[in-house]
Amino acid sequence: MKRPPLRCLWALTLALGCGALGGPGAKKPDPPPAPGPLLGASLADTLALVEAGAAALGIVYRTDAASSEAVLATNDDGGEGYNFTLTRDAVDGDVYYLAIRGYSGSTTGAYTLTIDGPTAGSGGTEPTPEPEPEPTPEPTGDVDVTVDVTNSNNVTETIDGFIDAGGEVDSYIIELRDDLASNVVLELKSTGGTDTYGSLYDADGNLLATDDDSGPSLNFKIAGSIPTGLYLVEVRGYDANTSGDYTLSVKASWQ
Asked: CA-to-CA distance for 54 and 51, rounded, in angstroms?
C-alpha cells in the first residue's frame, strides 16, 4: 500500500506511554471541521485525514497479522498547554505507529516527544510475577494432644506455649477420640496474660473457626460440636508486637 506523505511517523515495538507536543503558544482558533471519525478508520484513511489537516495532534494505531489496521487513540490538548498526551496499554511484540501534526495547516514549531515506558527494542517490560499462594495449613506430623472421651467425660489436656514478637504462629495437632460416638463437644481456649488469637483447621486444611477475645481476659475461645478426628490449632499474638506466655486448653465432652 502506498502511504501519503506525513510530517512525523514513528514505529514502536513496545508499550506506548505519553507524548508531548509543544504548541505555538498563541490562542487556538476554532478547530477545523473533521470529515469523519478517526477511531476504527483504516491506516490509509487515517493517513489521508492527517495529511488533510483533519486529525488530532497525536494519533496512535497498531497493525499486525492478526488484526486489521485501525486507529487506537487520538488526542489534542490532554497534556500541558496545547500539547497532546496519549496513554495506552500495549501488547509486547506488537508494532505501534505514532503520527504527529500541528493543530492546523498553518501550525509550525519545535516540539519534544516523550515516551514513558521501556525503550525501543527492549522487548517490553517483564510481567509482574504472581505471588506464590501461602500453603494451606494441614495437620501433618506427630500429634501434640490426644483427648479421648471413650470412657470418661469432660477430659481436658493442656500445653504451655510462648509467643515471640514478630508475628510468630504456634501450631498444634490435636486428636479428638470417642470410640462410641462420631461427634464430641470441643472447647478450645487459651489462658494467661497474653492477648492471643486462635484458629482451628480440619484435616484437609479448611479453616473452621477463628476467635480473638471470647475467652478469659484477652484470650481466644472456640467451642462447639465437632466430629472426632485430627485437627490443627494455630495460636498467635493479637498483632506482630504481641509476645508472652499462654496455656492452650483442649477439652472434649460427650455430645
From this structure: 8
